From TrEMBL:
Protein name: 6-phosphogluconate dehydrogenase
Domain of life, source organism: Bacteria
Classification via Gene3D superfamilies: N-(1-d-carboxylethyl)-l-norvaline Dehydrogenase, domain 2, NAD(P)-binding Rossmann-like Domain
InterPro entries: 3-OH-isobutyrate_DH-rel_CS, 6-PGluconate_DH-like_C_sf, 6PGD_dom2, 6PGDH_NADP-bd, HIBADH-like_NADP-bd, HIBADH-related, HIBADH-related_NP60_sf, NAD(P)-bd_dom_sf
Active site: K169
GO biological process, one term: organic acid catabolic process
Keywords: NAD, Oxidoreductase
Organism: Caballeronia cordobensis
GO MF terms held by the record: NAD binding; NADP binding; oxidoreductase activity
Domain 3-hydroxyisobutyrate dehydrogenase-like NAD-binding: start-end pairs: 165-278
PANTHER family xref list: CYTOKINE-LIKE NUCLEAR FACTOR N-PAC, OXIDOREDUCTASE GLYR1-RELATED
Ranges of residues in domain 6-phosphogluconate dehydrogenase NADP-binding: 2-156
Keyword Oxidoreductase attributed: yes
Length: 290
């Protein structure tokens, strides 16, 4: 396929690289041009404007947050002036409100739109093992499925309303944050009673809670190893705030999310915003005087 990729951070860059390795023709654009160099070495065409990337069979965007997405896609007029026949695949984690707005904007201008946020950190993206939550018209998803197949291990088709994929992603990230918080608190509890956190980790991950969340984040908490960050605490705070806002929009209280938000704010207040999400374990230990 002939595709464009807009946004080449750790996630976007890894996904664009995998598309190139699979033989797709890829045009790339990023605000900071230095992030395009490695992809250019792999065969990507580096373009000067987002409009040049927003062309071909499909355009994939992986921008950092609502503000970046709005500046490029909405205020920059990309959707309004999209070429006929293009499918836009937005893979970013965004607010529920902007998700609805983008769905309406694409419909207004007759642009096929797929929301496809992902589950997985940059290392998972690099390995092509993401779980992709895709929503939109079936025919639009079908058209981009060959690319999605090389970006992730599974595409979960979660409905025809694009914004539903974004809300599901917020719900999943909220659950992830809650799991990290609960392990951090449990680690502080057992430590207070003289039990090694590693013992808790071994028991839990081989009985009640096997799987990547506790095995990965729990291991970092047990080792008190929060750098280098695979997913930064400040980005986790952004996602938890988005989940709370999505709940507010439909009068759904998320009291656990509020606790996690406050503890992430605590982490940032102590200068730990660029440490891994697992730094919630350090917050719990500090609160317990450990």
């Amino acid at each position: 396929m002939d595709i464009g990729f807009i946004g080449l951070g750790e996630m976007g860059g890894a996904m664009a690289s995998n598309a190139l390795k699979a033989g797709h023709t890829v045009r790339v654009w990023n605000r900071s041009r230095d992030k395009t160099r490695a992809l250019a070495d792999q065969g990507a065409s580096v373009v000067d404007t987002p409009e040049q990337a927003f062309a071909g069979d499909a355009a994939f965007s992986m921008l950092a947050d609502d503000a970046a997405l709005r500046a490029v896609l909405v205020d920059g007029g990309l959707v309004k002036h999209a070429p006929k026949g293009l499918v836009h695949v937005n893979m970013a984690t965004i607010s529920a409100a902007l998700a609805v707005e983008l769905t309406e904007l694409h419909a207004q201008h007759g642009v096929a739109y797929v929301a496809a946020p992902v589950l997985g950190r940059p290392d998972v993206a690099a390995a092509g093992k993401l779980n992709i939550l895709a929503a939109g018209a079936s025919e639009a998803i079908d058209r981009v499925q060959p690319v999605l197949d090389v970006l992730g291990q599974k595409t979960w088709r979660v409905g025809s309303e694009p914004q539903h994929a974004n809300v599901l992603k917020l719900a999943a990230n909220f659950m992830l944050a809650s799991a990290i918080e609960s392990f951090g608190e449990a680690a502080a509890l057992v430590s207070g009673h003289g039990i090694e956190t590693q013992t808790l980790l071994d028991v839990i991950t081989n009985s009640l809670f096997p799987g990547p969340v506790y095995q990965g984040y729990g291991k970092m908490i047990a080792e008190r190893r929060y750098e280098p960050a695979l997913f930064k605490a400040r980005l986790g705070l952004k996602d938890v705030r988005l989940a709370i806002a999505a709940g507010d929009a439909v009068n759904v209280p998320l009291p656990v999310a509020s606790v996690v938000r406050d503890n992430l704010v605590d982490a940032l207040a102590h200068g730990d915003g660029d440490k891994d999400f697992a730094v919630l374990g350090q917050v719990a230990a500090r609160r317990a005087g450990r």
